[in-house]
Amino acid sequence: MARKSRPALTQLGHATKPPASPDEAVLERIPNSQPRERYLVRFACPEFTSICPVTGQPDFAHIVIDYVPKAWIVESKSLKLYLGSFRNHGAFHEDCTVTIGKRLVDELKPHWLRIAGYWYPRGGIPIDVFWQTGAPPKNLWLPEQGVAPYRGRG
C-alpha cells in the first residue's frame, strides 16, 4: 500500500483533483501551535460514502473523529479529500472506520484518537463501529458525539 507523504502543504489553497482511492490520498499535517495543551479536535462527516464490496451498492455513514493532538494537526482540506476518496472504495463498514482511524494515528501520532462510524442500515440493520487508541487523557472535556441511535437518523 503506497502512501504519498509530502512535507509542504500541496492541497490547501490549490485546485486539487480528488484522489481515486484512499491509498492515493495525501493526508497533510501542520504543526500544532498549542502542543502543551490537552484539547480535543472533532471532525464530523455526516455524508460519508463508500461502496459495499459485495453488491457494489453505496453505503452511507455519519463519521465522527475525535483526537487530542501532540506535535501535529491534520490539515482539514486533505482530510476532506481523504474521506471523499472512499466514495468508490469497496470495503465493509468495520474496515472503513478502523482504516480511517489507523491512518490518522499513523500520520499524526496523537495523544489519543477515537473514531465512530454511525452507518445507515444495510439489509435492515444499522452497523455502528467504534475504535480508539486507548483511554482518553484525564481531565479532557469529551462531549457526546451527538449522533443518536438509529431511528431514521436525520
A few lines on this structure:
InterPro entries: GTP-CH-I_C/QueF, NADPH_dep_7-cyano-7-deazaG_red, QueF, QueF_type1. It is globular, with a radius of gyration of 16 Å. The chain has a domain at 29-132: GTP Cyclohydrolase I, domain 2 (2-Layer Sandwich), CATH 3.30.1130.10.
Walk me through what this model shows.
- This protein is an alpha+beta fold.
- The protein has two helices and six strands.
- It has helices at 76-84, 93-108; strands spanning 29-31, 41-51, 58-68, 72-74, 112-119, 128-132.
- The chain has a four-stranded antiparallel sheet, with helices on one face.
- The radius of gyration is 16 Å and the shape is globular.
- Its main location: cytoplasm.
- One of its GO terms (cellular component) is cytoplasm.
User: What's the number of extended β-strand segments?
Assistant: 6
> Mean of residue pLDDT?
91
**Number of discrete helical segments:** 2
Helical proportion? 10-25%
- Judging by the overall fold, what is the CATH architecture of the domain at 29-132? 2-Layer Sandwich
Task: Specify Rg, calculated over alpha carbons.
Answer: 16 Å
| Largest β sheet strand count, sense and barrel closure | 4 strands, antiparallel
Distance between the termini: 36 Å
The CATH topology label of the domain at 29-132 is GTP Cyclohydrolase I, domain 2
Structural class based on helices, strands and sheet pairing:
alpha+beta
